[in-house]
Specification:
Blueprint (H helix, E strand, L loop, with lengths): L1 H16 L6 H11 L3 H13 L5 H17 L3 H21 L4 H13 L10 H13 L8 H14 L4 H17 L1
Helix pairs in contact: 1-3, 2-3, 2-4, 3-4, 4-5, 4-6, 6-7, 6-8, 7-9
Length: about 180
C-alpha cells in the first residue's frame, strides 16, 4: 500500500514539475488535474507562487487554485479562508480584464460549486453573461478551441445559460469555424 501511495505521489510530482506554467496549455491541463488532486493543487500553487513575473492569466489560475484548496480541505474554517483568498485575488484581475473569458470562467467555475448561502457566488450571472458575450463575439483565437469547448460544456451542464443564449453561442461557433 505504501508503494502505491509513494508511486502516485511521485507521478503527481513529476507531472507538475514537468509542466512549464508559462505555457498556457500546460497550465490549463495542470489546473484541471489539480481539481482532482490536493497534492497537485499544492505543487502547482508552489510553482506559480515562485514565478518572478506572473501574468494575469497565471495569477487568475493561482486564485482558482486557492479555491481548489478549499475544496480539498476538511476544516470548514480553512475552506472559508481559502475561498476568501481566491475571491480577493481574482477580483482585481477581473476588474482589469473584464472581457477575458478565461479569467471569468475560472471564477465562475469555483463560485458555481460553493453553496450560495456562504456569499461567494455573487458573480455567477455577470460571469456567465461576459463569457457568453465573448464567445458570441468570437473574442478568442482558434488555439483556445479546447478551452471554449470546455466552457460551453460547463455552461450547458450547469444550466447557467438559457436556451436562447446557448443557440446564439452555437451559431457563433459554427460561423467561426466556417471562417477558418
Amino acid at each position: 500500500m505504501r508503494y502505491i501511495f509513494f508511486t502516485g505521489l511521485v507521478v503527481c510530482f513529476h507531472l507538475t514539475q514537468s509542466c512549464d506554467v508559462t505555457d498556457i496549455n500546460c497550465l490549463r491541463i495542470s489546473y484541471y488535474k489539480a481539481v482532482q488532486s490536493e497534492a497537485h493543487t499544492d505543487t502547482l500553487i508552489s510553482i506559480i507562487t515562485k514565478l518572478q513575473h506572473k501574468n494575469y492569466i497565471q495569477s487568475a489560475y493561482l486564485a482558482g487554485l486557492y479555491a481548489l484548496k478549499a475544496k480539498h480541505h476538511s476544516n470548514p474554517y480553512q475552506k472559508i479562508k481559502y475561498l476568501q483568498k481566491a475571491n480577493e485575488d481574482i477580483k482585481p484581475i477581473v476588474i482589469l480584464h473584464p472581457d477575458d473569458m478565461e479569467v471569468r470562467f475560472i471564477r465562475l467555475s469555483y463560485q458555481y460549486y460553493v453553496p450560495r448561502f456562504l456569499g461567494f457566488s455573487a458573480h455567477l450571472q455577470d460571469d456567465t453573461q461576459a463569457i457568453a458575450r465573448a464567445i458570441i463575439l468570437c473574442k478568442f483565437n482558434y488555439t483556445d478551441f479546447g478551452l471554449v469547448t470546455n466552457i460551453i460544456d460547463f455552461l450547458k451542464k450547469s444550466k447557467l445559460i438559457n436556451t436562447n443564449e446557448l443557440a446564439k453561442i452555437e451559431k457563433a461557433m459554427a460561423k467561426y469555424w466556417t471562417k477558418i
